[in-house]
Design brief:
Strand 3 (81-88), helix 4 (92-105) and strand 4 form a beta-alpha-beta unit. The chain has an 8-stranded parallel beta barrel with strand order 1-2-3-4-5-6-7-10, surrounded by 5 helices. It has a two-stranded parallel ribbon with strand order 8-9. It is α/β, with parallel strands linked by helices. The chain has one domain (31-247): TIM Barrel, CATH 3.20.20. It contains 11 helices and 10 strands. It has helices at residues 40-49, 61-67, 69-77, 92-105, 118-127, 144-149, 156-169, 182-188, 214-219, 229-232, 237-247; strands at residues 31-35, 55-59, 81-88, 109-113, 132-136, 174-176, 192-195, 198-199, 212-213, 224-227. Helix content is 40%, strand content 17%. Helix 4 (92-105) packs parallel to helix 5 (118-127). It binds cytidine-5'-monophosphate. The site of cytidine-5'-monophosphate (C5P) has 17 residues, from strand 10 and helix 10.
Length: 248
Amino acid sequence: MGCKPTGDFKSPTFGHSVTPPKKYNIKPMPKLCIALDTDYDRAVELIKALKNKPIIFKVGYKLFISYHRRITDLIKREGFELFLDLKLNDIPNTIKDGVMSAAELGADYLTVHITSGKEALEEAVKVAKGIKLLGVTLLTSLEEDHVKGWGVCISKEDYILNLASLALSCGIEGLVCSGKELPLLKSKFNFFAVVPGVRLYGEPQDDQKRVVGIEEAIKNGADMIVMGRSILKAEDPIRKVEEILALL
Ligand code: C5P
């Protein structure tokens, strides 16, 4: 599909005021986050079996819509950090309400689509309390053709840089991005990098498009690596988690 701009979108200037990257001498190892995109019983089994491991559990639509507090309370009770992946995308007042409710649930991380806009992001930051807000840039299942299909006539890299710049200038601490764009983003901004779309060598990409191997994600500066199907589809998921932890 050709690129047909529909609005008055201008080329990004990256003119938002954001903190320049810090030069770290010692880079902490990335955290592993397991995406619990599975049924309730299996999720409970995994949470119990992985007690005391340095892991964050991510709850998305599948479990949150059906089980809500049953699953979020369990994760907190077992001593894990809770990542609520609800990818909020709405008007400022609704975003504010969503973030406040996530704070009541004890979420440690919460995703918000940067395309919700400046005002919505600022409202989110105001009420975030202890939650680390993560701005979603371009989903790892999308490619440049999708961006062009929206009528946005810039490269996906410029699109991502502009979203990142907007989110960070509003006070959002973290960005969800592909490991592919991570070196570019890290060269320009100081932020907490959450990387989904990660696979071990030879594993299927499934519906993900901008995928990286775990070594590349680490090398490129991921602060948190999100893995779902790689673990959930493994013959022995617990062993798989141990193998992954050994790589970090
Ligand atoms: O199974 P897989 O490892 O591909 O799962 C990736 C997880 O990360 C899913 O739960 C998905 O919703 C989430 N995610 C993503 N891309 C984003 C943000 C979150 O894949 N940009």
